[in-house]
Amino acid sequence: MTRNENTPQPTVTPDTTDDPRKGLLKAIALAGRTVAAVRPEQLDGPTPCTEFTVRRLAGHLVAVLRRIALAGRGGDVASLPTLADDLEDTEWQAAWDAAVREVEAAWADPEILGRTLTLPFGSLPGAAAAAVWTSEFTVHTWDVATATGQRPDWDPELVAVAYAAMRRGLPAGPRDDAPFGAAVDVDAEAPAIDRLVAWCGRKP
Length: 204
Fold this sequence. Notes:
The protein is mostly helical. The chain has 6 helices and 2 strands. It has a two-stranded antiparallel ribbon with strand order 1-2.
């Protein structure tokens, strides 16, 4: 399983020398391209995030986008579902594009980075919340890509930010209280994306 908005608050302090909203929007854009490239016959296939098929994972990501937008507007994200399961296959792209526009509008003010946002697992500054969601979208993009035979063009800086956040936010030992499997051993020289997803319990 992977990080979602019910994940306990991480201890990571994101690097605020760069605007973390940029990384979040890059992660969202890559996720959007990856899901858009899924073929219809692949939608009911399994993913490495075992609770989701490809179709349901796409619906989850639309729901997360809507939650990010609501958080940016000062709302309680727990008031929205974690899965947009009412979308027809022909409606997915329009729903995604609309949700992205909502995120961009809700997070347009740079002051949001220092504003306290209410998430299901607690309150976080906007900068830290952006790091959490960047990690979620990056790992889920790998889930979709792996399930459908895609090879995304990973942004090294983005993966590095997500990996650092997950290393600090997830314990190396037992994870009984977190929605993640145990970390998987991977070669220290493995690609950064492999090390990220292995830390999140995937087998790259």
